[in-house]
Structure prediction request, 292 residues.
Amino acid sequence: MAQQYSLTSRIKGEAVVRYRQLVNGLSMPRIHLGVYLTSGQETSNAVHWALETFDGSFDSAQMYRNEKEVGSTILNFLSNNSQLRREDFHFTSKLASNSSYDAARTSIRRSVQQCGLGYIDLFLLHSPYGGKAARLASWKAVEDAIADGEVKTGGVSNYGVKQLQELVASKPRILPAVNQIEVHPFNTRTEITSFCQQHDIVVEAYAPLVRALRMKHPVISSLSEKYSCTPAQLLVRWSLQHDYVPLPKSVTKDRIITNGQVSGFVIDAKDMEKMDGLDEYLVTDWDPVDAD
Prediction:
């Protein structure tokens, strides 16, 4: 089990860092299991299978209503694996809505209590909705949660360039280390991802599998055959080669296992360009990046 948490894996004879360095000096795993739209035993099973197979990194949120299930499954796993520590696992949650400082601060504390893990590794503002004043007040609450040891790293989600510029211009004590957005070959969001890379903000890619809407696309099918991988593995690998942190979601044990097995091939530059060219601004869920 300990080998699953080593810092490097091997890809065609070259060491590949399994952890992504953050601007605050901390790091996080390169692949996280998404638990969006899962609940109860379904969430617990998915988390347990991921812990048994490839990773200990989980992306939850207040709106998902499964912080408790994720946290309790991690704690149960820890109790049965004495060689591991809380620090070997990475848990993300998100603020349901931006409002006042006090409301956000209380909500963060509640998430820490819900997960039961003692602290949250990454806490994000789930969206830019609520207006400028609410966004900045909520970010101040994240900063204070970090100062108080309740959160290790702060970030945002679904932020477009104008909201990121607004936050940077406010001269916060702590800059966001992460922006979690929908990004995949069919929605490449190059304006946002370029801004993030220029400002040392790690891009987390949610819906990296396009919610299975393009698995049979001719380009995806042909490249999957070329690299002897599944379409899901190809899409996860695309994210990694763009230096994103993908959050593949599944509640099926076999798929949870295979989605993390992407170290056996590298997509060549021409094929990466071909996949980049599939962009059609396909939004599979919500799209708050232009919110005022």
